[in-house]
Amino acid sequence: MKTLVMKFGGTSVGSVEAIDQATDIVLEHAKQWDRLVVVVSAMSGVTDALIESARTAVTEEEEEAFRGIIADLRARHHDTIEALLPKDNEREKLLSTVDNLLDELGAFCHSIHILGEITPRAMDAITGMGERMNARTVAAVLRHKGGKSESVDATRLIVTDDKHQNAAPLMDKTRARIQEWLAPMLESGVVPIVTGFIGATEEGVTTTLGRGGSDYTAAILADCFDADQVWMWNDVDGVMTADPRMVPDARVIPILSSSEMGELAYFGAKVLHPKTILPVVQRDIPLWVKNTFNPTAPGTRIVREVKENRGKIKAITAIKGMSMVTVEGRGMIGIPGIAARTFAAVASQGASVLMIIQASSEQSICFLIPTPMTPPVVKALEQEMERELARRDIDRISSRDNVVIVTAVGAGLRDTPGISAKVFGALGKADINVIAIAQGSSECGLSLVVAADDAVDAVQQIHSQVILNGG
Ligand code: ASP
Ligand code: MG
User: Fold this and answer.
1) I want to staple 345 with a disulfide (CB 3.0 to 4.6 A). Which of 138, 152, 180, 384 is the partner?
2) Residues with Cβ within 8 Å of residue 166, at least 6 apart in sequence
3) For the chain, how are helix, strand and coil distributed in percent, rounded to 5?
4) Can you give the pTM of this predicted structure?
5) How far is the CA of 138 from the centre of ligand 2 (A)?
6) DSSP SS3 for 75
7) Whether residue 211 has its Cβ less than 6 Å from ligand 1
8) Strand 149-152 vs strand 445-451: parallel, antiparallel, or unpaired?
9) pLDDT computed for residue 412 by the predictor
10) Which ligand minimizes its atom distance to the CA of 213?
11) Which residues of the chain have pLDDT under 70?
C-alpha cells in the first residue's frame, strides 16, 4: 500500500492558473498511488490579509477599513471560483460557504473593533479561514474535473495544545482522529483536501501551528499514515544554491540534509522550517520540494543526513538590515559575567541575536542584531554597564549599521580543512573586506559580516568561485 502526502503552498494554489495546475497534478498522481492525501495553504497573501483585517479592526476608528479588506477577499475568492467552475448548484453552494466564512470574519472583526483588542484565540479563528475557503475550492475543482475528492477541516484531525498561534500537536490523539476520520475516506478512494495550518484543542477550539504551518500539517499526516513520500509543492524548482534575485546562475540543490536546510531557513532562505518537517525526517520518509509550475523537474530531496558531499559548501545566503554592536574595553579581560550581563540586556529589549563574536583576548564582544533594535539595545547596555563605563573597564559600547551576514552552508564544514581558505580566497581576490567571522556553533554554517555595499558581490564571488567549482 503506497501512500503519498502532498502539500501545496500559497502560490501553488493562489490563482486560477495555479489551482488548475495543482488539481491536474493531484489527478495524475491519484491514479499512481494507493492513497493520496493533499494539504493546501490559503491562497497566497490571504493569511496576511486576514491578520491585517483583525489589526485594522483594532487600530482604525473607521469600521469601513476592515470591511474593505473583507470585500477584497470576497472578490478574489468569488472570481477564482467563478473562473474555475461552471455555474451550477455546486458552485452556488461553494460561493455561499465562502460568503458564510467571510461573514463570520466580519462578525469577529466587528467585535474586535468594539472590544479594542485581539486575543490570540480570536486571531487563530480568523487566520485559519484562508485554508478553510481554499480547501473547499480545490476539492470542488477536483470533483468538477472528474476526481473523487472531499475537503476536510484539520480542526477535526489535528488535536493540539492551547498555545494559540503556535500550537503543538498531541500526536496520540491526532493519530486516533486521523484513523477515525481520514482512513475510511482513503479506503473508499477519495482524495481528502485537508486544510493546512490549523488544528483544534480537545475542546474543539481552533488553533494554528505557526506561520507557514501547512508544512507541519503535511508532516503530521505523513507521520500518522507512515507515508512513503511527502512532496511539498512550491513556486521554485527546489532549494537553490543562492537567492536567484542576487545570483542569476543559482542552481537547484539535488539533496540536502535537514540541518543544512535549518541553517538556510534561519538565515532567511525561503525553505521549509526544520521544526515543521521533523516528524518526516525522523522517520526517514523521503521528502521532496517541487515546483508546481514545472512539475517534471526533480526538485530537492531533504534527508536526515547526507553522507556524500560532506565538507562542501552547498549554498550561500545573506541577511540584510543588520547592525553590529561592540562592547569593548581592556578591563573586561578575565572578568566573569560580562557576557551574561551583555546578553541579558539585549534580551531585555526582545532583540534576537543572529551572530556572536568574541576574540580570545576578551577585549571585546560583538554581536549582530536587526538594525531597528540597535538604539534600545545600546541604551540598555549603557545602563547595565554604567559602573564599568565610569571606571573605564569598558571603554566603549558602539554600533555599526549597514552590515550584512553572509553564511555559507554545508554539512561537515566545521570538520573540513581548507573551507575558510576557499571562502576568504574568493573574497580576497575580489577585494572584499570581511568585518567579522563566526564558525563552529553549527556544524554546517560559516558566517561572516561584510558591509552592505559589498554583500551582493560577496555572495556572487563565493557562489561562482566556490559553489560552482564543486563547493
Ligand atoms: N497560510 C499560512 C501562512 O501563510 C500557512 C501556510 O501557508 O503554510 O502562514
Ligand atoms: Mg510556506
Assistant:
1) 384
2) 208, 209, 210
3) 45, 20, 30
4) 0.85
5) 18
6) helix
7) yes
8) unpaired
9) 85
10) 1
11) 266-270, 440-442
